[in-house]
């Protein structure tokens, strides 16, 4: 999931610099602290908050930027069609997330915040992931490769919750995250 490229802050920083620097810190496994971020950007905290919102909003945007790129990469790379293809995309995505060092570090360091940011109805990451899965389902339906067992939005929501179950298993139940189980569960749902 991670793709670390050092970011150099411009001489007159702006919202893009704040986002890119926060993203760089996240990918390096560093905790995003708003006071430290403002200091490194050489701006006041009020300016930083005006640019990016609060810490949770910034973290959500940073995590979504990484999630979107990873999900899209897997969606383009996986062949096949129908439910089997969707199950493979989801399983591959879950495996990537489960093996991502900076993401796992964030989960270990801030488990309650991570679950709130990533798995609740207020989560922009979850909303956008559901929309991405909904789009993928619609493509398969339009090609005639999938007959959905539920309305598309409900199905996308359920698939995302299945993926979350096998990404956050260690936090929720103490078991090891398992991408193969996520793939198998989605495949069974879409048969």
UniProtKB/TrEMBL annotation:
GO terms for molecular function: DNA-binding transcription factor activity; transcription cis-regulatory region binding. The keyword Transcription regulation does not apply. This is TetR family transcriptional regulator. Signal peptide: none annotated. The keyword Ribosomal protein does not apply. Residues 81-191 form the QsdR TetR regulatory C-terminal domain. It comes from the Bacteria. Pfam families: TetR_C_36 (PF18598). Keywords: DNA-binding. The lineage of its organism: Bacteria, Bacillati, Actinomycetota, Actinomycetes, Pseudonocardiales.
């Amino acid at each position: 999931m991670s793709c670390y490229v050092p970011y150099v802050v411009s001489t007159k920083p702006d919202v893009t610099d704040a986002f890119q620097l926060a993203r760089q810190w996240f990918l390096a496994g560093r905790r995003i602290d708003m006071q430290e971020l403002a200091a490194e950007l050489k701006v006041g905290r009020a300016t930083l908050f005006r640019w990016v919102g609060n810490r949770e909003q910034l973290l959500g945007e940073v995590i979504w930027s990484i999630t979107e790129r990873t999900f899209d990469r897997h969606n383009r790379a996986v062949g096949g069609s129908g439910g089997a293809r969707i199950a493979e995309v989801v399983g591959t995505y879950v495996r990537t997330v489960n093996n991502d060092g900076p993401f796992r570090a964030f989960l270990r360091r801030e488990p309650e915040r991570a679950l709130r940011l990533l798995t609740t109805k207020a989560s922009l990451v979850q909303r956008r992931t559901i929309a991405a899965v909904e789009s993928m389902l619609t493509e398969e339906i339009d090609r005639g490769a999938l007959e959905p067992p539920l309305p598309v939005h409900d199905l996308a929501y359920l698939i995302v919750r299945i993926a979350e179950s096998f990404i956050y298993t260690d936090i929720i139940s103490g078991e090891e995250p398992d991408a193969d189980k996520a793939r198998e569960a989605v495949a069974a749902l879409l048969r």
